[in-house]
Amino acid sequence: MKQYEFFRVTLEDHIATITISRPKALNALSTAVVTELETVIEDVSAMDDAWVVIFTGDGDKAFVAGGDIKEMYTMNPDQGVAYSKLGTRVLYKIENMPQPTIAAVNGFALGGGTEIAMAFDIRIASSKAVFGQPETGLGIIPGFAGTQRLPRLVGKGMAKMLIYSSMRIKADEAYRIGLVQKVVPPEDLMDEARALAKQIASCSPNAVRLAKAAINQGLEMDLWSGNVYESHVFGLCFTNSDQTEGMRAFVEKDKAVFNGKPLPKGEPQ
Predict the structure, then answer these.
(1) Do the Cβ atoms of 58 and 5 come closer than 8 Å?
(2) How many Å apart are CA 101 and CA 206, to the nearest integer?
(3) Quick one: pLDDT band at residue 264, thresholds 50, 70, 90?
(4) Span 202-221, mean pLDDT?
(5) Cα torsion at 34, 39, 18, 213 (round to 10°)?
(6) CA 251 – CA 248 distance, rounded (Å)
(7) Are 8 and 19 in contact (CB under 8 A)?
(8) Residue 169 backbone dihedrals phi, psi, to 5 degrees
(9) In terms of C-beta density within 10 A (0-12 exposed, 13-18 middle, 19 or more buried), how is residue 240 classed?
């Protein structure tokens, strides 16, 4: 497996686990970390054997504590724009990874930490996790698409309250407002994430990837256009062996064994 400076990547049972490892800085997102993260995401996205992706933070204190304030403190406006565009681009790549993705939030997820968690498909949080967009208390606003993803996940009013006030919320409140899908004891976090990943990986990897494409693209369309797109993607399911194997197993009362053979190039991934 390729080695990185700030990340560890493992692959087991078709599950790729990405761990950000900068624990002394609470996994803060410096320019160097975000730049390497882009490479990591591109590498993992290209892994045919990686059917599900889990992302978590090293250590027991932080998932990602936020941006690197010491670095941002000296930025001028042009550097601020460049840093924001870098983070926004990388998180967009996370959101559009072909594989289904799970953020296992193990501690502080503030600022860029909340923003990076929101880029993943599903968020499972430790009961000790803390979320928030504290940027206004620092004289800035969220810069990694927090003003865009948070309202889409929790509603405009709730997002404005959280961003305007710079407040932090605990995992149970994050669950209540729909920011995370599940809260578990800290010692169970990775087991729960892996169990969900294994459940997803037991399904057709191509069907799951196509479902992700249909959801992500469809939400950017009006309802009818989304329906038309879904029909197109539904048809693509019949271009690979996963559909044949899944339906054969159902008809013959057998257990399906999917090989995850990649879809034809150029089709939605």
Answers:
(1) no
(2) 14
(3) low
(4) 95
(5) 100
(6) 5
(7) yes
(8) -130, 150
(9) buried
Query: How confident is the model over 37-61, as a mean pLDDT?
Result: 96
Q: Please tell me the distance from the alpha carbon of residue 8 to that of residue 19, in angstroms, as a whole number.
A: 5
Q: How many CB atoms lie within 10 A of CB 227?
A: 13
**With contact defined as beta carbons under 8 Å apart, do 118 and 101 qualify?**
no
Which of 145-154, 177-186, 193-202, 241-250 is the least confident region? 241-250
State the catalytic residues: 115, 135
User: Would you state the torsion angle of the CA atoms of residues 111, 31, 98, 110, taken in this order, to the nearest 10 degrees?
Assistant: -10
SS3 assignment for the chain:
CCCCCCEEEEEECCEEEEEECCHHHCCCECHHHHHHHHHHHHHHHCCCCCCEEEEEECCCCEEECCECHHHHCCCCHHHHHHHHHHHHHHHHHHHCCCCCEEEEECCEEECHHHHHHHCCCEEEEECCCEEECCHHHHCCCCCCCHHHHHHHHHCHHHHHHHHHHCCEEEHHHHHHCCCCCEEECHHHHHHHHHHHHHHHHCCCHHHHHHHHHHHHHHCCCCHHHHHHHHHHHHHHHHHCHHHHHHHHHHHCCCCCCCCCCCCCCCCCC
When mean pLDDT is compared across 10-19, 100-109, 134-143, 255-264, the lowest value belongs to: 255-264
Residue 111 pLDDT: 97
23 against 163, higher pLDDT: 163
What six digits make up the tokens of 53?
């992706």
The one-letter code for the residue type at 140 is I
Spatial distance between the Cα atoms of 156 and 161, rounded to a whole number of angstroms:
9
